[in-house]
Amino acid sequence: MAFLSDTLARVKPSPTIAVTQKAAELKAAGKDVIGLGAGEPDFDTPQNIKDAAKAAIDAGKTKYTAVDGIPELKKAICAKFKRENGLDYTPAQVTVGTGGKQVLYNALVATLNPGDEVIIPAPYWVSYPDMVLLAGGTPVFVEGPMQTGYKITGEQLEAAITPNTKWFIFNSPSNPSGAGYNRAELKELTDVLMRHPHVWVMTDDMYEHLVFGDFEFCTPAQVEPGLYDRTLTCNGVSKAYAMTGWRIGYAAGPQALIKAIGKVQSQSTSNPSSISQWAAVEALNGPQDYIADSRAAFERRRNLVVAMLNEAEGIRCPMPEGAFYVYPSIAGCIGKTSAAGTKITDDEVFATALLEETGVAVVFGAAFGLSPNFRISYATSDEALTEACRRIQDFCAGLN
């Protein structure tokens, strides 16, 4: 009898975490490494949020809380959805988890049965397929190629839906591509979903506030109110407020689903950190100036990275609408050999050679379901990004 679960054999460790760990190991060994793999802002958590956490500790708010969030945070989340998205939810329709990932996973565990299908546009965040597999479902991928801005069409979504489809996972702006769907593009998808009432919508709006230029964020239940009763609108404080380590994610949706999610959480982690919850209350209710400041920095970095990558031989990098990622194609590099003698057969080999020969750590595209590409997180300093892109240019120039 095998000791490890058969279910565990269906999934793989997170490639993004693996790249970050590899870069850290090389740095510790004395190698000059620039890590562009981690998806977290390099800015500090705003002072007012840190002060709120300290005040919570001093006030003794360090005990167990309600499993899926304190009333004050649920109220703040409801206010946020109303203020920023025009969506009306009650606290009973809100769940708070230990990061956005737990909220998504809880929802899948609470709803999926063997044979249930989940449609996932590719390129996708690396965790979506594996969470579906862990929950007993079957991921179904729909590719959004570079030619369409890494976005899928309504026709593609329609073709992917079957009687077994239970969820459609929607992430805009996207990790890894930064692609954002405008209202018209999203309406095309919601029109399809309205024709298939058995399909539920799980939105991952984590990068909502990181949009650039004149792009305007919108979320499915906002664009199509007819989807309100079968949409789980997910978000969190990690990216917008530089609170990745605080581990607070949240979602709102139909009360029966929220109750089921709470049931899963009650028998796994129980409540998120009480201190982090009080910090999140301040993040949502307090001054929002930080968001505009960080957005401006990220937009500047995006423009820098896209310009420099498009000067590299064999690389094409579209201009993303949001998040803090770019997802360039290396189609022009495939089949060539690096200066150190490595034959570039695919994007994983490219990323490995790039790290070993130049010290630049990126994540290969196959991890996100669309190749040949790689992902750069530009959530680091302008100086580090400039040097990393210069090294990438030199690496590509050395291919022959």
UniProtKB/TrEMBL annotation:
Keyword Transferase: yes
GO biological process: amino acid metabolic process
GO molecular function, one term: pyridoxal phosphate binding
Keywords: Aminotransferase, Pyridoxal phosphate, Transferase
Listed EC numbers: 2.6.1.-
Ranges for domain Aminotransferase class I/classII large: 31-392
Family matches, as SUPFAM superfamilies: PLP-dependent transferases
Matches recorded under InterPro entries: Aminotransferase_I/II_large, AspAT/PAT-like, NHTrfase_class1_PyrdxlP-BS, PyrdxlP-dep_Trfase, PyrdxlP-dep_Trfase_major, PyrdxlP-dep_Trfase_small
Catalytic activity line of the entry: L-aspartate + 2-oxoglutarate = oxaloacetate + L-glutamate
Cofactor(s) named in the record: pyridoxal 5'-phosphate
Gene3D superfamilies, A to Z: Aspartate Aminotransferase, domain 1, Type I PLP-dependent aspartate aminotransferase-like (Major domain)
Pfam entry (one): Aminotran_1_2
Family the UniProt entry places it in: Belongs to the class-I pyridoxal-phosphate-dependent aminotransferase family.
Assembly information from the UniProt record: Homodimer.
Name listed for the protein in its UniProt record: Aminotransferase
Species assigned in the record: Frigidibacter mobilis
